[in-house]
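All the exercises in this workshop are built on plain-text protein records. The record below serves as our worked example for the rest of this section.
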Amino acid sequence: MKHWEERAKGWVFLSHSSNDYENVKIVRDYLEENGFSALMFYLRCLEKDKKHLRKELIESEISERNIFVLCDSYDARKSDWVKWEKELVEKDKSKIFVTIDMENLKSEKCTELSKLDKLMKRSTLYFIYDYDDYKEYKNTTAKRKNIPNLSDKTKIALNETKNKGAVLVFLSQKILDQKWFWSEKESALEENTLIIPILLDDVDINEFPAFKNLKRININSEITIEEQITLIINENDAKDN
């Protein structure tokens, strides 16, 4: 069986001041209880003769995690490391970025943790695909970020996806003849979830009228697929609010 972190719903980097350690643990534990891998970065071995490795390690770890949680506090705002981590992530539009007010966490714990609830809902994505199409797509960001597929449990997955992210629908010439696709498409449309179409070839979007007016992914865009997905989800969140 895979280690639980390999099956995590998302990978979170917690940016924080060491002075907030005990309160940051509350945030970390809450995320882990909900199936997310959350990292509080501190390595004793980097405190002495290996300090020069710290920046490279942190940058590498942040790049591998799709969620960045800033644990904001008076001490965090004084920290050069936290400032650098925040600036690094702000340049990467593909990251899900959430700020937790550590001072407010002390008095209004539920209010601050509710921000994580919203984060966790939007960080899980499911997609419908034709297997051959998926094989062509498997080396993209979606694969690396461990986005689960629907397989033969479509109804269960779609029900779970309600208000929990998006359904990515891969559209291609091959999919037009797949009977199972049309039934899964109807299931997806029946659920209250965000659908994001991805055109993989020169298939005409008019062949899929239900998706015609939806914002879709352009695989030939200079913007990465992951960044496009994040932008669409952010716009949808803003509309709902």
About this structure: The two ends are 40 Å apart (CA to CA). Strands lie at 11-15, 37-40, 67-72, 96-101, 125-128, 166-171, 194-199, 217-218. The first strand starts at residue 11 and ends at 15. The chain has a mean pLDDT of 75.
